[in-house]
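Slide 14.
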Amino acid sequence: MKLITAIIHDDDAHGVMDELSKHGFGVTKLASTGGFLKSGNTTLIIGAEEDKVEEAIKLIEKRCKSRKQITSANLPSTEGYIPYPIEVTVGGATIFVLDVDQFKKI
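Slide 15: predicted structure.
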């Protein structure tokens, strides 16, 4: 058994969860916040048999697309911080696959 942890953009969360559920994967959704942009992310926790891990990853990849977004960076100045627009890439997914020593559903 494997534990898949996928950190995705909030905008992609419902589509990914629907896709995974449609293919028989159980998904738990956790709200999370990214450290760089301080914006909302969704962390999905998925339990899967080892032979189903690649299928789950492909379903996540299918629904998570990276895109460009303009945001403000605060640059220090003598008068405090001045907002400065920068282009960043958001979306996509960061996926961790971990071994599970024991699983119980009570």
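Speaker note: The radius of gyration is 17 Å.
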